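hi! just following up on the protien thing from before. the input was this:
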Amino acid sequence: MKTIMKRALATAGSMALLGSGLILGAAPAQALSCPPGQIMVDLGGGGQTCIPAATDGGNGNGGGDYGGGGGSGPGTVTGPPAQNGGNYGPTPGYQPPTQTYTPPAPVYNPPAQTYNPPAQTYTPPAQNYYAPPAQTGGGYAGYVNPGTGGAVSQNAAGTWVDSSTGAAVDPGVAAEAAEAEAKDTAAEEKAAAEKKAADEKAAKTASVKSTAEKAATYQRVLATAEKAVSGR
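and the predicted 3d structure came back as:
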């Protein structure tokens, strides 16, 4: 009987000690003061810690209950703390990728050479001068004595004679012969002057033509050189 009573008392004492321990363990611990931006979390058994708050601002005194006793603040944490100390702050703004523009390389096309030297259209004038036939023999042989049909000429002494008879002609025939000879001499002098002018003109024309041909050749050489330079 004594043994049974001892066991009953021991059991009652153990139960009382266990109950007081549970009551003390369940008592709320003093609230932990957390810095701004964090909240206090009760880890149970009187343990507390601070974790980053889910939202910005606040005084850092919100509480959370994870099974070890009541929270000491008005806030209630409904989820587990962030993994690896994650931040519940706002998501950073979108940063678009930088556009790198590479302009296309310019392609230079030199202008085509369209210069064509003008064709040479100069035609020298035709030579229209015909010199009269040269006089053969001495004196003027073109006048004919109307009385005999012989040619009248002037000898070395200056006398007009009939070539068919060798006799001097009368003064009228001599005057006509002298007039004809004067006209013929003037015509010869005029012809000689015209021939000289024609020769000078022909020489000048040839010089102008040569100069024009040289200029055309120079233009062609210049155009060829410019085309070669622009094609490099």
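The helical segments are 2-26, 171-230.
The two ends are 129 Å apart (CA to CA).
cheers
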